[in-house]
Amino acid sequence: MESILWNLEDKWKLTTQKSIAFFICICSLIIVICLVTICFKRRSTTRRKGLVGQDPTDIDVEWSESKLLSLNSSVKKLLTSTVRWSGPSKWEERRNTERVSPLLEGESGQWHSHNSDSPVWQRPILMGEKCELPRFSGLILYDERGRPVHHVDNDSFIVNQAEALGDFVLFFSSSSLSVGVDPDRDLNQSCFKMSTYTPKNILITGAAGFIACHVANRLVRSYPDYKIVVLDKLDYCSSLKNLIPSRSSPNFKFVKGDIASADLVNYLLITESIDTIMHFAAQTHVDNSFGNSFEFTKNNIYGTHVLLEACKVTGQIRRFIHVSTDEVYGETDEDAVVGNHEASQLLPTNPYSATKAGAEMLVMAYGRSYGLPVITTRGNNVYGPNQFPEKLIPKFILLAMRGKPLPIHGDGCNVRSYLYCEDVAEAFECVLHKGEVGHVYNIGTTKERRVIDVAQDICKLFDIDSDKVIQFVENRPFNDQRYFLDDQKLKNLGWSETTRWEEGLKKTIEWYKNNPDWWGDVSGALLPHPRMLMMPGDIERNLDGAEKYDSGSTEFSGKSNETKTAAPASKTSNVPQKSPFKFLIYGRTGWIGGVLGKLCEKQGIPYEYGKGRLEDRSKLLADINSVKPTHVFNAAGVTGRPNVDWCESHKPETIRTNVAGTLNLADVCRENGLLMVNFATGCIFEYDAAHPEGSGIGFKEEDTPNFAGSFYSKTKAMVEDLLKNYDNVCTLRVRMPISSDLSNPRNFITKISRYNKVVNIPNSMTILDELLPISIEMAKRNLRGIWNFTNPGVVSHNEILEMYKKYIDPAFTYANFTVEEQAKVIVAARSNNEMDASKLKKEFPELLSIKESLIKYVFEPNKKTSA
Length: 867
Ligand SMILES: C[C@H]1O[C@H](OP(=O)(O)OP(=O)(O)OC[C@H]2O[C@@H](n3ccc(=O)[nH]c3=O)[C@H](O)[C@@H]2O)[C@H](O)[C@@H](O)C1=O
Hints:
Rossmann fold, 26 helices, 35% helix, globular, binds the ligand C[C@H]1O[C@H](OP(=O)(O)OP(=O)(O)OC[C@H]2O[C@@H](n3ccc(=O)[nH]c3=O)[C@H](O)[C@@H]2O)[C@H](O)[C@@H](O)C1=O
């Protein structure tokens, strides 16, 4: 029985094995048949389209376009192009571009499309060909390198553009084309229906700034389903208060940080599952860019590059909306009647617009190289509430409110086109949802106004006589005459401007009247040519009225009660961002050296004090090797205690530091390719026949020193002369330094307020609170040569002491004596002179005159009276 059972079991096993083998055979056969069929299908599709590597999901649109195109057979040149698969959702998979095989002459009437996701129609066209097209706006011709060369808004055009730059192929696209459409149908209605993109998680960069805050607040308000994450470094021109309307919305999150931090951006994209970026963050003020263009390159080009790279590595972005400017086109001719269209050439004229154009190139390259779904906007000037008052309209409003003159650059005939912020926010809403990937959209208005008209309109609304307040001032180094845009393409997406100029201006004035202190101390911005340097970039300004954010670290914050999520410490601990600078400062125990260190701390610039003595070359080298600075500041030197008389009796010591040491440091820096900013003195001049007291004629940088009355001054003049041979040195001639620290015994005010008697001679002087930040800026700008480092103009001892009485101590008294009487109580003679500060003023137009600076930086902050 047992053996029978074993037998049966064996048989059953055998049968099962056979069945399994048979089943596997059948399956394999089916798979092979399927594969062969797919391959065959693919091959035939590919061959029909003349393409290789075709996406099997492509729709097959072979559109006989005799209706749309009539070819000029006399032109024989056939053209080829590079094509990529487009389609926003999987761009990262489509990084490899495919080369279209040259199409043969007879095939030129065929249109080809390759992707149902976002179809792009393509066919080669001929120079001289007359193309008749459906009424489809925003059609752009690309040359073979993907550069847009011609913009088509009409029914037909002749392909004879001189600017066509050679061979080109015609593309047009729409995400919602009906497949196999009858060319007789109304294409505008049936084929080119607007596509709609729905974002989920949007990252808006620079959203605490002007335009982006209106966009962010609008999206947060109107689309509760979208998560809006905003990233802003809270620069001088942005404020968290601008985001107050959004702060308690559950779909809003604020992150303080810099777009230039790759770690932070990558982290955000991933943890917040960002699918859409609207990139507004930039340095935008043209005036600033003339003096501080590196900052613009860093923010606008490098920052954008970091974002793009983050998009590439994370591979999840479905829309990258890059916010550019009309300024990239350069200026429009005064008499031009046709505005710049999106395919016009980019010809930026100032450093700001050049960096914006540079950023655009990177955006375009990431679109082309990696298929990143990019859209670019180029906008006219924008105005409205929340704008930082360095820009014309808010600046003139605030000045008018304060009864101050309105400075007009040049003759005021420059024309700008002004759009109200809400209209612009709506334009972005439209581009976000309806914009075509790979396209550029101008955001413009045809309503143009000259600067002088703007000033007059504002005066009218304030009931001010414009003739009395308008003040013509020096123009910008270059001031584009006009920016005139063709905005039809955006209008075709359904957007239009709705706010009239008069209405927008009234609303804006109303807002500034209701919020006069929104931006805190904006005196620097209200100058004729403001520079970033003069802005109080204080974080506190951002906090007033808004939630408190930790200024030192990156922090996430949505609703006030939302759990805060911190970025991984190891990755983002370098926020605030790593500075590109590192300063090595000599003179730690000195007054200027000490203040410089504090300024670096405030500005987030890493610095170290030099340990070696100036005369010890090996120690200087050791300092440089260990600190690895980008710039060296020399604020070391002997000035004598309690005053320069000391140097008369300590000549070798004076020479050792002031001459040998300074030259040593300059030489070591030169050898190491470093700029040395050297705090020198202007006490090497005295009034003479060519520069008499009270004449207003100051000594210039190139004048030869004429004062050697003290040993100190003598050595300083000698070393300055020798330093001229070092092209790595920036010599700053300081005079009678003054600061707001009235307890400092080195302070000129402190000194003269303590003397029994003082002479009364007008002199040029240096207000350190204003000028030391400028010295840092000069280092950043790598300025070299000799600079009179004083505030423009002169002030006398008595004038200062009178101010002292007025602001500090009304009971204060002082007595004068003559220079001759003074000579009896001092050892060495003192220099009195006026320095010509026009070179410095030209570089830093916002520089205050000595008297204004004294009041602003010294007496107002120390005011103890009701003056
Ligand atoms: C689209 C760009 O707009 C802004 O640049 P723009 O230089 O045109 O704006 P401004 O408001 O700085 O200047 C406009 C116009 O006014 C003149 N002006 C300004 C201030 C002042 O005190 N007096 C003046 O006469 C100035 O010279 C200009 O001609 C925006 O800043 C930029 O980001 C854009 O992209």
